[in-house]
Amino acid sequence: MQNYWWVNHKKTVRQEVEGQYLWSPKTNANGRRNQSYENMREASPGDLVLSYAFGSVGWVGRVTEFAITAPKPEEFRNAGAYWDHEGWLLPVYWTPLTPPVRPKAMIGTLGPLLPKKHAPIAPDTGNGNQNVYLANIGPEAFQEIIASAALDQEALQRGGGNRLTFDVVTEQLNDVAQRWIESDAGLDSTEKETLVRARRGQGVFRKNVEAREVACRLTGITNPALLIASHIKPWRICKTAKERLDGANGLLLTPDADHLFDRGFISFSEGGEVIVSPRVPPDDLRRLGFDQAMQQRGGMAEAPAIWNAGSFDASQAGYLGYHRQQVFIA
Amino acid sequence: MQNYWWVNHKKTVRQEVEGQYLWSPKTNANGRRNQSYENMREASPGDLVLSYAFGSVGWVGRVTEFAITAPKPEEFRNAGAYWDHEGWLLPVYWTPLTPPVRPKAMIGTLGPLLPKKHAPIAPDTGNGNQNVYLANIGPEAFQEIIASAALDQEALQRGGGNRLTFDVVTEQLNDVAQRWIESDAGLDSTEKETLVRARRGQGVFRKNVEAREVACRLTGITNPALLIASHIKPWRICKTAKERLDGANGLLLTPDADHLFDRGFISFSEGGEVIVSPRVPPDDLRRLGFDQAMQQRGGMAEAPAIWNAGSFDASQAGYLGYHRQQVFIA
After folding, report:
1. d(CA B172, CA B184)
2. Which of A95, A246, B71, B130 could form a disulfide with A156 if both were Cys (CB 3.0 to 4.6 A apart)?
3. What is the pLDDT of residues B113-156, one digit of tens each?
4. How many CB pairs under 8 A join A and B?
5. pTM metric for this prediction
6. Do A221 and B171 touch (CB under 8 A)?
């Protein structure tokens, strides 16, 4: 289902529009949950977003990827210094709305169309809501805004305009992390090589995983030529050498399973059940061959499909908790 | 089925034993087929090899990977200068045979056990056969040689002794090719970036492939989040920018299909039929979900499974011919 969003950029409008993305922290500064940050991971490719800043909606965006855990793109180059700035990065392709629309001037008709909870501007006064970053506004409010200005619908829908794909973002973060390792004066050359090889699931990390795991948790395959040693907490986001090499931070997965797991399309519950994101069409899962696994293990053929992948020990459970919270696209 | 091999190293014994591999050209210098080079791609993980050089068998090896198209490992660093030295690299884990065994001294009992065709030493005189590199000798001749000396069977069977895995070899070749691109004074920075991004199937290369291919040839999936733009002739082996970016040199494949294709476990016939290597256990294929695809497309559930993947145009056919000859593990 297509969703319609409204973002209150505040001061970052220029970077976010030029950079073709949205970025938010994951929680409030005090660590509390914030629904408008949670909305970042609910946005899906094809959703549309109104860009609001300084009293005007000047851009309309189309979401091009699911949210990715990452620092702000302008901080990628120095990402190692900003790991604590980890947030949700949402790639969005922006198109100008001409002339910009001032919602406050039309609050009489717009107000009743806005949601009662978590509204991005006050439905009565039209004043901005400081506590809201990304708000779900529904199609009527969205149409009301864009109806009074010109928008190049074709440019908005056209694919390929956004370079910031999942692969590009994650590879840039991997490259930055690798450069930080290679320039770390506290590591000798063997330690550096070991950490860098873990990036591709090779060497010491793979051995550490193989000491715990014997088969792919989804397919049961044990043939090493068909298995990837996949990080649970992604290598690009790990903060220490221990996390990058810890056998408890890995699973042996077939390439399809590794891809789905790394992109956050599947995860595992505390009880060892496979959780499948509703964003993956059941027909695609079937074509990937997972309906068979689901049936064999007693799960359902329709998403959200859940079946049991066996038990995990306490150290694996910690990493899996991170994966559910920070990688899985719920 | 386990095979028993005999290699005539000639002068390269030290590099090959220390480096944990065998390496041969793909054909004779005149371009003719040589069965003892073809044997390189028939060797499988778990096969055992006798190392013969200077009149003695001094080592016994266990094959740890299928053969990979690559220059000699000692040339990896300068691989760009050696692309014409492309041959078969076979990772082998070597264990000493103590004391070394001289086959000529036992040719009376050994000779009748050697194969009549392509024997590695003459069955009557025990003199080395210059034209043979890797020979299939069968279990009896193998046992006859090792029976008269001490061999640490446990060390031979132990896994993990060989760093030269498929992933390590191909990543090293990829890294070398990338450094050659980055140091190529004939390319500007945009061209370099475009070529490097093609390594991961991104950017211009992916767009070029998407202009021709709409779905995974094996699963029918069209969801871009589940598809990889996979090179037919591997990026690491391409010799020109044109090959690295050519849309005809790519297919859109799901991660499992990409993995099987890149490792040479599947390929496509001229008529568009999927060819599955007999080295992939049918039960593993089933667990990867390909039995379903096979059934839907009228193929057989037992390997070698063949079903039709649609037609390819002439420019794709050229790259697919390379893949069948140089990548596919027959």
Report:
1. 18
2. A95
3. 999 999 999 999 999 998 899 999 999 999 999 998 999 988 88
4. 91
5. 0.88
6. no
Query: What confidence tens digit (pLDDT) does each residue in A217-234 have?
Result: 999 999 999 999 999 999
Q: Does B202 touch chain A (CB under 8 A)?
A: yes
Q: Is A262 on the interface with B (CB under 8 A)?
A: no
How far, in Å, CA of A179 to CA of A171, rounded? 12
Which of B167, B256, B284 lies at the smallest CB-CB distance from A255? B256
Most confident residue range from A63-77, B36-50, B156-170: B36-50
- The mean of the pLDDT values for chain B is 89
| Structure-derived torsion over alpha carbons of residues A311, A315, A321, A324, reported in degrees to the nearest 10 | -60
Amino acid letter, residue B118:
H
Restricting to A residues 77-106, those with a Cβ less than 8 Å away from any Cβ of B are none
Beta strands in chain A (DSSP E): 4-8, 21-25, 48-53, 56-63, 68-70, 87-101, 134-136, 150-151, 228-231, 250-253, 266-268, 273-276, 306-308
ipTM of the complex: 0.86
C-alpha distances out from residue B62 to B3, B17, B70, B95, B155, Å: 10, 12, 20, 8, 10
